Amino acid sequence: xxxxxxxxxxxxxxxxxxxxxxxxxxxxxxxxxxxxxxxxxxxxxxxxxxxxxxxxxxxxxxxxxxxxxxxxxxxxxxxxxxxxxxxxxxxxxxxxxxxxxxxxxxxxxxxxxxxxxxxxxxxxxxxxxxxxxxxxxxxxxxxxxxxxxxxxxxxxxxxxxxxxxxxxxxxxxxxxxxxxxxxxxxxxx
Length: 189
Fold this sequence. Notes:
Oligomer: single chain
Number of helices: 5
Structural class: mainly alpha
Shape: flat
């Protein structure tokens, strides 16, 4: 066979493969539906599903917990938006020559206060979660407390290339690199 004919057949084959792949993806995406939040979290949803499993919640507790989750997420979103706004203003001061140090100190304090509010909101949320537990579930909650920092303190984005657990390490962050964003950076908006 000629080189041109072989190349033409190869291009046609790739074109048909692309069409098949696109068709498969489009047909598959039509069958995917968004979860109904009124039914509680879907089975594959991370921390909420894990917590409900670990605490052996019944259906009524799951529904009550979903109400707590929705309210907590709403309040957390507001505080995170405020944090992002404060950081924008804080780093925006760098455009001035010289930067207003009084304003920078005030914004820095507001950022710290907002971070404290987030920590207090999370603590209150877990106190409410504990109150949902029946007496026979309190032991499960105590076990869960040990995992809370690890569960909610990890990074909320996939590791970048080169990041991740150190080779041969204990699974923690590399020495000199704390887990999570540096203290002087706010959450990603």
